[in-house]
Task: inverse folding
């Protein structure tokens, strides 16, 4: 299947909220919740997308002609590309009836592994969501990263035990999901975590811990002090707080503040290999991409995931070559121009 064919098929399978837009910029679904949209005016996802488009590339082809390597190492594992599938949950609520969370992860995890990357998995109010996700990761030799929502302490610790048994590469918490309206007043309860509470959670599991949902230098410092090995600069796809800046806007200052003390990932509106290049030039070690993996999988299953990863990887290679970077380490801030 071609990418165009996958997108056409996806439009038959998602809905009614997601439109499987060819350009996924947050406009068509801006305030669709349930759905992939956002609270309030729904401008968060649009800001994320636009913040990457405001950055341009500095072309330089007076360089040695040699092969381009997109390989990277994260947590001791080598990946073909600095790309992760972002955690997505409540599939039937937000994206249509074709796949449950469990069915989605059962396809996504091995498809990403076969494509040379790894998937983060989502969490849900139903306990079987994490049970199935960690079992799928275990079946795939631990090649995945479960993401726990900021539930109450006892619920988190129970889920961390399941994650230990899965032998996952790492564990994440999307702490920004505390702002999702459909998680409020639910059982188990979810909400913000203090630095001390977060540190206690991180200390309870002997795996690299990733804190997702960092948008300020202050937040990054708190996550680092709590023991996080990595952070994800993220505003939950622009879904949880109207008025947030785009992730591309805050990434450079966060990288400058934390230095090389933690790995930094970023998500939100990243839609092409060129966008991935921009993220790395701004200081990210890797990116997370969410909605495009949903439409790729809904349109083509595991083949759709492979086509998407290959497309992004080829775009990244081409951008690197045209800007004079032949490995990820050679990508630098002077290869982009910020308006």
Result:
């Amino acid at each position: 299947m071609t990418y165009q064919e996958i997108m056409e098929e996806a439009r038959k399978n998602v809905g009614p909220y997601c439109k499987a837009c060819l350009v996924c910029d947050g406009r068509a679904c801006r305030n669709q919740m349930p759905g992939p949209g956002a609270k309030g005016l729904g401008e968060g996802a649009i800001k994320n997308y636009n913040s990457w488009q405001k950055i341009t590339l500095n072309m330089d082809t007076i360089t040695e002609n040699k092969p381009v390597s997109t390989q990277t190492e994260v947590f001791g594992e080598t990946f073909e590309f600095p790309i992760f599938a972002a955690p997505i949950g409540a599939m039937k609520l937000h994206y249509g009836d074709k796949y449950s969370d469990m069915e989605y992860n059962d396809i996504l995890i091995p498809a990403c592994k076969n494509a040379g990357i790894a998937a983060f998995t989502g969490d849900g109010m139903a306990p079987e969501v994490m049970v199935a996700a960690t079992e799928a990761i275990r079946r795939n030799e631990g090649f995945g990263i479960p993401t726990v929502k900021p539930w109450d302490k006892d619920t988190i610790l129970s889920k961390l035990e399941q994650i230990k048994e899965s032998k996952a590469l790492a564990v994440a918490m999307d702490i920004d999901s505390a702002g999702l309206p459909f998680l409020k007043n639910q059982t188990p309860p979810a909400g913000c975590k203090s630095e001390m509470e977060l540190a206690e959670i991180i200390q309870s599991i002997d795996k690299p811990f990733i804190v997702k949902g960092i948008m300020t230098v202050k937040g990054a410092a708190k996550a680092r002090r709590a023991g996080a090995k990595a952070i994800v600069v993220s505003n939950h796809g622009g879904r949880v707080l109207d008025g947030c800046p785009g992730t591309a806007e805050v990434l450079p200052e966060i990288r400058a503040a934390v230095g090389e003390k933690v790995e930094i990932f970023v998500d939100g509106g990243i839609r092409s290999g060129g966008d991935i290049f921009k993220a790395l030039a701004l200081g990210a070690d890797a990116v997370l991409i969410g909605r495009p993996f949903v439409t790729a999988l809904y349109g083509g299953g595991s083949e759709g995931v492979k086509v998407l990863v290959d497309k992004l990887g080829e775009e990244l290679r081409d951008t690197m070559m045209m800007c004079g970077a032949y490995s990820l380490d050679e990508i630098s801030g002077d290869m982009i121009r910020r308006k």
Q: What stands out?
A: The chain has a mean pLDDT of 94. The longest helix spans residues 291-323. Residues 3-23+33-323+334-338 form a domain with the TIM Barrel fold (CATH 3.20.20.70). The first strand starts at residue 55 and ends at 57.
